[in-house]
Amino acid sequence: MTTPRKILVTSALPYANGSIHLGHMVEHIQTDIWVRFQKMRGHECYYVCADDTHGTPVMLAAQKQGITPENMIAKVREEHLADFNGFYIGYDNYYSTHSTENKEFSREIYLKLKANGKIAVRTIEQLFDPEKNLFLPDRFVKGECPKCHAQDQYGDNCEVCGTTYSPTELINPYSAISGATPVLKESEHFFFKLGECADYLKKWTSGSSILANGQTQAHLQPEALNKMKEWLDDDHLNDWDISRDAPYFGFEIPDAPGKYFYVWLDAPIGYMAAFKNLCDRIGMDFNNWFSVGSNTEMYHFIGKDILYFHALFWPATLRFADYRAPTAVFAHGFLTVDGQKMSKSRGTFITARTYLDGKLNPEWMRYYLAAKLNSKIEDLDLNFNDFISRVNSDLIGKYVNIAARAAGFIGKRFSGSLCDVGNSALLTQLSAAADIIAEHYEQREYARALRDIMALADAVNEYVDANKPWELAKQDGMDTCLHHVCSELINAFHILSVYLAPVLPKIAVQTAEFLNIPALTWANSQHRLPENHVINTYQHLMHRVEQKHVDDLIEANKQNIQAAPTPAQAAPNAEYTPLADTASFDDFMKIDLRVAKVLSCEKVEGSTKLLKFLVDLGFEQRTIFSGIAAGYPEPEKLIGRMVVVVANFAPRKMAKFGMSEGMITSASGNGQLFLLDVDSGALPGMRIG
Predict the structure, then answer these.
(1) What's the pTM?
(2) Which helix or strand (DSSP H or E) is residue 552 part of?
(3) Which pLDDT band holds residue 584 (cuts at 50, 70, 90)?
(4) In this predicted structure, what is the pLDDT of residue 2?
C-alpha cells in the first residue's frame, strides 16, 4: 500500500488572447496523465489552472473588438475550457487571473515583499506611443538592430544576430501598435529586488524536498538547474520590473494610482487564487497547503521558455512573502510537426478546436504524445505518418482487439459470464509489472511506461495466437477451454486498461462499463474478475486512423488561415510591419541572393539564440551564424535543406563565436522566424532575382 500524499498540480496559464493549439496540449496532456495516475494510486491530488488575462495585448485586442476586456476574457475562457475538456483534461478548477482571490493575493504578497525590503522604486525612461498615449512594452517596439542593422527587430533583442539591447538603442524605432515614432518619457516604476534573493535561490534550485513516502524530489531537472546556474553563478539577476503604467488591464498597485502590477507578478499568483477558489468551494483549508513547513506537495508543469519565471522569480516571491516554495518545477520542450515548427501556411499550426471539429479522436493524440514524452526538457515531433502507424498498431492492433476478440465468445457462448482463471501465468506476468510501470508514470517517463505496456500487450496477443479461440469455437467438446481462454483475455484486457487509464481516460470509463465494475484504480491490476462475473455487451471502443483524417485536418487548418482577418481587421498584436522606403531596381540588384544547401547545423555553445551553419553555395562552402535557434530547437534536422543566403555581405565578427560569411534569410512576424524555402530542382549557387 502506498503512503497517502497531498498533491497540488498546475499547468502554465494559457494567455487569454489566442486559441489553444497542440503545443498547449503537450503540456496539459502531460500534466493530466500525471494527475490521473496520482488519483488512481489513491492520493489526494488536485489539478488547477486558469486563463492568464492581464496585460497590454489583452487590453488592445478588446479595444479592437469594441468590447470590454472583462467580456473578452470571459468568452475566451469558455472557449479554452471547451477545448481542454474536448481532450479530457480533468481540472479540479479552471479559473481566471482576473479574480477577487488573485487581486487580494497580489496585493498581500506585494505588501509583504515591501515590508521585507524587497521592493525598490526608481524613475526610468521608456518609449511612449504618442498616438495611443501609452508606454510601449519591449515587444511592442520594433526597429533596426543597432549592431547588424537587420530590420523589424523587437525592442529587447535581435533575432538575426542575437544581440540584446534596450528599446531606446533601436535605430528608427516605431510602435508595433500604431506605427508612430515613439518618444522617450520618464516614469516611476516598482522593482522586486531579485538580486538580493540570489543566496536563497542558489540553495533552492540545487535542493530537493522529502515527500510523505520518504522519497526525495529535486526541485529542478538537471538541464533546468544548469540553466539557472548561468544566471546565479555569474550574478546575472537584475531587479525585476513588476509595474506598468496606465492604461493597462490588470490590478492597481496599492497606494500607487495609475500603476499596475505587471502580468508576470500576478500570473503565477493565479495558481494560488485558483486553488483558494477551489478550497472555498469544497471546504478545504488553503493555509494547510501554502504555509511554510507544509507537508503537502506542489508541482508546476511548464514550457522551457518560461523556466526563468518559475524557477527564480516565483520561488523568491513566495519565500519573501512568507509562503512555501514549490516542491518541483517540471519543464518540457516544444512541439514540432513533421520535423519543423508549426506552420500556418502548411496547415500544421493545428488548433485544438480544428482537431476536435474534424472528428479526430482526442485519445489518439493523448496516446501519441505520451508515447514521446519523458522527464527531460526535450522537444518532441508530431510526425503524421508515425502518428497513423503508432495509433493503429498499438491501440487498435495490440490493445483494443484483445477485448474485441474475446467478448463475442463470452457473450454468445457463455451468457456474458466469466470462469475462474486460477493462477494464470499470463495474468501473473501482467500484474507483476504494476510497480515498474507506476514508477515510470511517477517519474514522467511516459514513453517508457507505454513501451512496457505494449510489450505486455504483445504477450497477450501471442497467447491469443497460440490458443486460437476462433478455432476452439469450431471444435466439439472444447467449450471449457474456450471459456477459460476468453476469460483470461478479458482479465488481461482489464489489467492493460488499468495501466493505460491515465492516458486514455474515456476508454477507461468505457472499459469499466463493459466489464461491469466500478471505476478503475491502480489496485485493480492485482485483482482477477471472479468466477461467474457477468460482463456487458462489448461496444466498439476505437476506430483506426485513416490518412484522410490527417489530410482533412491539415486542409482545415489552411482554410482557417485563409479565413483569418485581413491586416486591417487583425488585432493590434498581429504586428504587421510597415513597408520600408521605396527601393529602386538598382538597389535590389546590389543584393546577391543565392540558393545554398545546409551541410551542417549546430547550436552555438554560450548562446541561446545562434545556430552555426555550414552551407554549400555550389562554388564554395561558407560558415554562417543565424539567430534562429528559438525557432529550430533541433538544428540537425535542417541538414540537407535548401535555404536562401545573402552571399555578398561583408564577413562579420560574431562576438566570441567566430566569423559569419553571409546571412540566411527568413520571414519574421509575431515573434517567430521562418526559413525561406526554394522549389525542388533548385541547385546550390543559383542566383535569385
Answers:
(1) 0.81
(2) helix 547-562
(3) low
(4) 72
Q: Among 355, 341, 348, which Cα is nearest to 88's?
A: 355
Burial 64-94 (b: 16+ CB within 10 A, else e): beeeebeebbbebbeebbebbebbbbebbbb
pLDDT at 563: 53
Alpha-carbon gap, residue 375 to 442, rounded angstroms: 10
Q: How far apart are CA 219 and CA 381, in angstroms?
A: 27
228: its cell numbers:
539557472
Residues 6+ apart with CB under 8 A from 119: 110, 113, 190, 191, 192, 193
Between the CA of residue 345 and those of 348, 359, 464, 507, 564, what are the distances in Å?
A: 8, 22, 47, 34, 12
Taking the C-alpha atoms of residue 587 and residue 593, their distance in angstroms, rounded to an integer, is 13
pLDDT in the model for residue 627: 85
**Amino acid (1-letter code) at residue 273:** A
Amino acid at the residue 526? Q
Query: Residue 657 — φ and ψ, nearest 5°?
Result: -95, -20
Q: Examine the pLDDT at 586 and tell me if it is beyond 70.
A: no
Answer whether residue 578 shows pLDDT above 70.
no
Q: Summarize the confidence of residues 195-222 as an average pLDDT.
A: 95
64 is written with which cell numbers?
Answer: 479592437
Q: Rounded to whole angstroms, how far apart are CA atoms 327 and 7? A: 10
Out of 58-62, 273-277, 663-667, the most confident range is: 273-277
Distance from the Cα of residue 124 to its chain's centroid: 35
Give the C-alpha distances (Å, rounded to integers) separating 552 from 358, 396, 548, 557: 7, 21, 6, 9
Cell numbers given for 385: 505518418
Who contacts 75 (Cβ-Cβ below 8 Å, separation ≥6)? Answer: none
Region 50-75: what's the mean pLDDT? 95
What number is the average pLDDT over the span 207-225?
A: 94
Identify the CA nearest to 384 among candidates 426, 419, 338, 452.
338
What stretch of H or E contains 596?
strand 593-603
Query: 233: Cβ–Cβ under 8 A, 6 or more apart, which residues?
Result: none
CA distances 249 to 57, 72, 95, 266, 385, Å, are 9, 12, 17, 12, 44
Neighbours of 142 (CB within 10 A): 24
At residue 571, does pLDDT exceed 60?
Answer: no
Name every residue whose Cβ is closer than 8 Å to that of residue 142 and which is 6 or more positions away in sequence: 152, 153, 154, 155, 170, 173, 174, 176, 575, 577
Confidence check: pLDDT of 574 > 70: no
Dihedrals phi, psi of 612, to nearest 5 degrees: -105, 120
Cβ pair 594, 617 in contact under 8 A: yes
Domains of the chain listed by start with CATH number: 18-118+194-353 (3.40.50.620), 120-151+162-190 (2.170.220.10), 384-526 (1.10.730.10), 585-688 (2.40.50.140)
Q: Within 10 A of 339 (CB to CB), how many other CB atoms are there?
A: 13
Residue 107 exposed, middle or buried by CB count within 10 Å (0-12, 13-18, 19+): middle
The string of DSSP codes covering 211-242 is -TTS-EEESS-HHHHHHHHHHHTTT----EE-
**Rounded CA separation 21/9 (Å):** 21
In degrees, to the nearest 5, what angle opens at C-alpha 611 toward C-alphas 610 and 617?
A: 130
